[in-house]
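I am still learning, so can you show me any protein sequence you like together with the matching structure tokens, please?
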Amino acid sequence: MKISSNDIRIGNVLEHMSKLWVVTKTQHVQPGKGGAFMQVEMKELRGGSKLNERFRAADTVEKVFLEEIDFQFLYRDGNTLNFMNQVTFEQVQLSVDLVGDSIVFLSDGMIVKICMYEGESISISLPPTVILEIVEAEPVVKGQTATSSYKPAILSNGVKVMVPQHIESGARIVVDTSDSSYVERAK
């Protein structure tokens, strides 16, 4: 679907130069001399390269609609991840590279969203948070419990995270999958 360059928003997926790009930043610029334009920063969905592009106000761009489908993670086989569609029970195999660094949070049975474009898997979105157990944490230092200081801890998946002083080994915590940060103690 063609849209005006003025209608480009963060998160839109555009087809530009025969590639798919996700918009990460936009800025409307109106210079003192000449016509206004939209400065758009984009990241390629398949390769990850970045591009800064200027679109004049009269330009149109092709907006792409991706289909998000719930899949259940089944198992990992080397560099291949196996998922099952929750509705059709169809199984798909995807490369480990598609998940990126957040693969450490992928666990058996987890429900993820896979973005599809014309039948091809483009990206995987993990849940925003996961609950994990702390296997190793430094002991509480007396006198530091009153302040909001943090100490290092190691989660059951091997990821190091900074947690409040009162959290001990064996505790279950909620972790943000986007930046591996402590959110709260699990209920």
In short: The CA atoms of residues 72 and 111 lie 4 Å apart. The chain has no helices and 16 strands.
